[in-house]
Amino acid sequence: MTKTIHAELTCIVFRYAIQMVHDGAHDELASLGLTENSIRWIASLTEADLQRLKEIRFSAVEAWFDEEALKRLQPLLEGRKREEDEENELLRLGAHLSMMRHLCGMGGAEYAKRRRYLGLGDTGAGRPMALNEEQQQRLWRVWQDSAGQPGKARYIAIGRCTGIHLGCVWSQIQQWENASAGSGVGAAESDGLNGGGT
User: Fold this and answer.
1) Running DSSP on this structure, what letter comes out for residue 164?
2) Which residues are CB-neighbours of 36 under 8 A, at least 6 positions away?
3) DSSP secondary structure string, 76-141?
4) How much is the CA Rg of the chain, to the nearest whole Å?
5) d(Cα 19, Cα 78) in Å, to the nearest integer?
6) 144 CB-near residues (< 8 Å, 6+ apart)
7) Spatial CA neighbour of 61 closest among 90, 34, 26
């Protein structure tokens, strides 16, 4: 394998090393094969020095891909993309923060950031409106028909099918769940109301 790599990649690696020096990550730097002398020298490099590196046709950095690791990485990355797509769809359908926290483990900062990215504003629409009787009946039918689907997929299907804001859906489901728990309904049915896992 050639030891000469693209100048831009060399600068990226040097910038990464400089950042680790600033973060005090000396163990990580040592694991990259750097001695204390090399670490001190890299830490002293200026932006002008990094630009000069691009002009020198010499590299002290080697890079390669681990094919077996790539095979393991691909499904992990694809799985995370599917999760993000589901999360984004929940937000588009009106999921509020408490719902996203419960279903996805999403915190407030990420919730606001993701909503901004999707053009939905920083926060949700406030307290969900109560559903009328016809909406409740429609929601109950769709909820029963969607039993067995994973939690996030189930709520997405409900939002698409009913057109009801997911904040309202979540609020109504929680009311049903609380009422069922208070009337002694079994744990299995209560879990069904909660929508299961992801």
Assistant:
1) -
2) none
3) HHHHHHHHHHHHHHHHHTT--HHHHHHHH---HHHHHHHHHHTTS-SS--SSPPPP-HHHHHHHHH
4) 26
5) 29
6) none
7) 34
What is d(CA 7, CA 70) in angstroms, rounded to the nearest whole number? 24
Token pair for 60: 């002290």
Percent of the chain topping pLDDT 70: 86
Residue length, the chain? 198
**Alpha carbons 73 and 83: distance in angstroms, whole number:** 15
Q: What is the pLDDT of residue 169?
A: 95
Structure tokens at 175: 């009311």
- Separation of CA 29 from chain center: 28
Residue located via tokens 């799985």: 79
DSSP per position, 104-121? H---HHHHHHHHHHTTS-
Which of left, alpha, beta for 73 (phi over 0: left; psi -120 to 50: alpha)? alpha
Cβ partners under 8 Å of residue 189, min gap 6: 180
Whether 56 and 6 have beta carbons less than 8 Å apart is answered as: no
With beta carbons less than 8 A apart as the criterion, state whether 133 and 173 touch.
Answer: no
Q: How far apart are CA 111 and CA 79, in angstroms?
A: 20
Q: What is the pTM of this model?
A: 0.69
Q: What is the pLDDT of residue 194?
A: 46
Tracing tokens 């489901």 back to the chain, one arrives at 173
